[in-house]
Amino acid sequence: MDLAAPHMSVQAEQTAAGQVLGLLTALVGTVDWLYRHWYLLALVITVTWGAGELVVRRLAARASAQRMALELVTTRHFDPSLEEIFRRGVQLARASTAMPWWAPRRAKTVQIRLRADGSSPLRYRVEGPAGGERLLSITPFGPDITVNRARPIADKPREHVVRAEFILRGRPTSPLREVPLTPDPLQPLVDAVADLRAELDDLAEIRLDIQRAPKWTLRARRLQLMNNARRSERREAQRAARWLRQDAASIEDSLGWQMQQLLSDKSGSGSGRRLVMPPVPRRVEPAEALGKLAEDDHLVRVQLLVMCASNTEGRAQARLAQIQAALDVFGGRARWAMRGWRLGPWRIGADHWPTRRGFERRWELGHCQPPRANWVRLEELTGLLKPPTRSCRLPVLAGDLPTFEFGNPELLLQGIYRGPDGRQRLVATYAEETLFEVGVGKAGGGKTERALAQAIGWAHAGGGLVFVDPHRDSWPRATTFLAHDHVMPRIALIDLNGLGPNPRVSSWNPLGMHHGQAAHEVVEAIADAYASALAWDDANAPRALTILTAALTVLVAVNEQACRAGRPEDQATIFHIRALITDAAFRKAALATVAERVDEETLAWWQAVFPTLPADAFAVVLNPIARLAANPVTRAFLGQPVGVYNIRAAMDSRMIVWVCPGGNGPTDRLLTALLARDLLRAARSRRDTPEEKRVPFRPYFDELITLTGAAPETIAAMFEDLRKYKCHVHGMTQLLARLPQAVRLSLVQNASTLATTAGSRSAIAPITAEWGDDPSPDRVATLERFEHYVSMNVHGRRVGPVQVRGPHLDDVYAAQARPRHVPELERAAQANAQALPLDQLTHRAAKQLGRVTAFLAEHSPAGATTVRLSKENEWN
What we know:
Number of strands: 24
């Protein structure tokens, strides 16, 4: 036997015990040393944490430098579904992880930026990792949204800046309120920034960072919530047991209980105590305890930062309060609350130490470091995952609709817009984009007043225009504001109403060639005007059109010959068509004079066909001319050889021409048709001028129903063609349905500006239908007087319909009113139109046939029969 083995075993045990004891002694000593030198341990921990934080920040800043930005621009019909919005949220969450493997988690985020600075209602940008650009560029929203690559925004410093970070308050497991899509959940935010003023450098920006939930953080959070729920349940069970025992003891000690025991016949029943069974803690269900954190799917962490700035004290603080109130819309069992502490009237938050520096770093670099309570599901963010939809009422800002500046030739006055803050401003459109304009509404609703305000502003800015008003009411209304020295030399009045005992009338020869017109264009314009006013066409009046065209061709050739001979005062007028048709001698001399200037086919028609026509074939051509001659005003106006009225010259010289036809009867309609067709001819004749040298000109047609009754095809052609020649038509009418179909279709199709006042529902419905019945006909029908709904084109996109108040001349142009200078303006307008007394012009028109006959006698070829003027051919 080995007797040394037990001895060695004892020594080994003693050695091991000594080692353990020494280890414990060393451990205790180390703890004691650390306790006495705790500051060294704190220093090491602080240095290690600081170094790690520095490395993480640098890596995060490096990763953030690779971010990109996209701006989402929607159409007015953007109306996404819940499923489309949810899919967009999934894309955003997925794109937040498209970062290098070494990027810290704070850099793995996608940021939604809602920005307003007074230039647009609410810009919607998405910023995220460069690797997620393709994923973020393809949205599930369809064609009603455009995704554009956006440049970084560099904000200039503002004097007053406020910052805030919002966190979720309430139970961590409770969701935000489910906000419906109609009205738009962004509407409160849009309203909060609607009164931003760019001239004050106002700025408001909301940034929502979305980050996928880290698994280990989520597990730790769930474990904490479960433990809290179990402890809460145990406390509730203990509290219930304690109250149960107290209730049982109080019952047994009561007099009633004791009397019951004495009267009971059961032996020993009075000496026992009631057995109380304490309640068992209820089992905690994970789904109930964890709430929205129970499932991993579509769970994200969010960070909500807000900054407001302005150069005016108090505006930034007020804006932040408005945004805070707007975010309350999303509040339910959980709500967005501003992070910080309040001490009486002071709030310590993101604007103060020690959190301000961290806020600014996250703001500038786009880092996401949300509080641990900011867990949400994508369904809770539905209202913020998309731009404003069609259900959102967007304010009209100066960047959307410019402010009118008196005397600015680039702007056209449209009306008075009242902003969300109650401020009113004159809004305008850009002249180069306002090609055609249509105003509809009941009589007295303010259509003409609005057109006058626009025309007066355009005239003062140096623009040329013609205002055609069959009723003449617009002229005395406008003179007070046009009586300025720089306007008077450019204004002319063509008044055919014949007011007064011996009115002054201007003159126009539609056949005159002294202005250098093309002969075939003059013939075509007059023939088309006749056909339009009298409803002629090749099917129902081919012979009348042929006779009229042949007569016009000859007379225009005569006038061309007279102008070449230096005798424009011997030109024929439209009234000489009768002499050409009914007087054989006059006709023979005219044909002989122009034999070399007209084509052989025309001469052959006069020689071979004309003599075979029956006498009654000419009545349909001569009757309208006879009606024109029967009216002394129109006879004086159209019977002068050298007419002053020249709309082409007015276009090129920026003239302001006021044309007031005498009425809307058959004769007046023919005259209106002649004027309208001449305007169309003159505008088309500008093809001889390079486009860049064409001066913009604006015809204003009041009472389109009257004008189109005379020349429907002409007015329709204006709305279709004149844009090419920088001639932009503005028309006003009470009823679209009363206009001929060709005119109605053309003006609605090409209208850059479409406006309506109140009226009957049936009258307004065609206009609101062009706007998708938003606003509805019922809403427009109840507008106050002078209120308008207007849709406009600005920067190539439609703005509106916007409710504006029609400008009243006495208010808008009060500073330009010159009532004392109105007589001077009247004299200048008549002088520029070379208006003469009616009796003088009538006498001259009566003698014109003799002058033309004498000219033909002098210029007829040798051997031609001398033309003699008989009494029956003379116009008395």
